[in-house]
Every structure is written in structure tokens, then in C-alpha cells.
Amino acid sequence: MSTESSPKDTTASLNEVTDRLELVKEEIKGLNDDYDMVQSRLRAVDKKLEKSESINKELEELKAEEAQSERQLEQLKQKVEKTLSLTEQLEEKGVLDDDATDELLQIKVRETLDLIASLKEEVEKKKKELADLQAEQDN
Q1: Does the keyword Coiled coil apply (predicted)?
Q2: pLDDT value at residue 96
């Protein structure tokens, strides 16, 4: 028996190696496709994370603006109370008559109501913006 392979055996071995090489190429192609898919998913997750961070930052800003609006509203209430107190004092001293007092109070009340309405409108606008951002983040 000879240790050398016959040409037929060599061809069969070569065909087997070629077949295995094709299988390896297919597996590599599949792995590359899987890698691309994972990379795509990671990019999508990164975008959602960035969007979430942006929304969280916007939410903090909206909360700060809402707190500022509430402080302004409280300051306004204090000013109205002070104005009413001063008006009562002036009225007691006879400096203001009832008609002037009523007119002054009506002006102050209108100004206060306008400011309150404006602040409420701003708060509602910010709440809507926040809801829109959260809905956008959920998508």
C-alpha cells in the first residue's frame, strides 16, 4: 500500500474542504448580518436614550418654570393683600371714598385676574409640551 493519495482521493478531499469553506463563508455572512442587526438596535437604543435624557432635561426645566410661576402667583397674592390693607387704611383715614376704593380694587382685581390667567395659561402650555414630549418618547 502506498501512503500517497490517489488523485481521486485528493479531489474528494479538495471538494470536502471547498464545501466546508462555503459553509464557513455562509456562517460568517450570517454572523455579519447578526452583528449589523445588533449594531442597528444599539443605535436605536442610543437614540432613545438621548431622547429620554433630553426629555428629562426639558421636564426639569418645565418643573422649574412651574415653580417660578407658583412663586410669582404667591407674590401677586401678597401684593393684592397688601393693596387691600393699604386701601382699607386709607379709607379709614378718610383719604379714599367708597367709589374711589371700589374703582381701585376693581383695577387691582382685574390686573390680578389677568396675571393669574396668564400664569395658568403658561402652566397649561408647559404641561401640554411635557405630555407631547413624553408621548414622543414613548414612540
Answers
A1: yes
A2: 66
Q: pLDDT tens digits, residue range 48-76?
A: 889 888 888 988 998 898 899 889 989 98
Residue 129 CB-half CA count within 13 A: 17
- Written as nine digits, the cell of 36 is 449589523
**Total number of domains in the chain:** 1
Would 72 be classed as within a structural domain?
Answer: yes
Residue with cell 407631547: 132
With contact defined as beta carbons under 8 Å apart, do 80 and 112 qualify? yes
Indicate the DSSP class of residue 4: S
3-state secondary structure of 121: helix
Query: What is the separation, in whole angstroms, between the first and last Cα of the chain?
Result: 74
Range of 35's domain?
A: 7-138
Measured CA to CA, the distance from residue 129 to residue 22 in angstroms comes to: 56
pTM: 0.46
134 in any annotated domain: yes
15: cell is: 471538494
